[in-house]
Amino acid sequence: MPINQMTTVHLTIRTLPELPAGANYKCVFGNAEPIDALMTGFGLSCPTPPVLERPNIPDGADHVLVPLSVRSSETNKDFVSRNFAFFDCSRHTVCTECVKSQWACSWCVYDNKCTHNTSCQGIISGENVSTLNKVQVKFSTDCY
């Protein structure tokens, strides 16, 4: 997930216990405030925490991992947890590093920058970017 983007995370949980009336599930991203989760047909969904509540990405890195836990308001205990990555494509300043990163980063040729936004002009699509329905996409071999 880009470090500066808000979105909803969908968690597939096959055996989600039913809660008593008045209780709910919460998503906990690292040290951020717990966020109310919405039960769905496949598990839970919850918004990502506000950008200001996210940890900083360390110098020299392009991402930070935080534990994403599901908590029951009934017990106030986390019962499932996985690492969740927040990344920053702009940490890459060279085309080849950008498009070969493990994240959905692409190189904007005319802006000379690495970004998760694939709508810029003259884009070189990263190796981990879905290219379905994209026209005139270049690939990592086009870095020069």
UniProtKB/TrEMBL annotation:
GO cellular component, one term: plasma membrane
Organism from which the protein derives: Melipona bicolor
GO MF term set: semaphorin receptor activity
Plexin TIG domain segment(s): 3-87
Protein's name according to its UniProt entry: Plexin TIG domain-containing protein
A Pfam family recorded for this sequence: PSI_PlexinA-B
Top-rank taxon, per record: Eukaryota
Record lineage: Eukaryota, Metazoa, Ecdysozoa, Arthropoda, Hexapoda
GO terms of biological process kind: motor neuron axon guidance; negative regulation of cell adhesion; positive regulation of axonogenesis; regulation of cell migration; regulation of cell shape; sensory neuron axon guidance
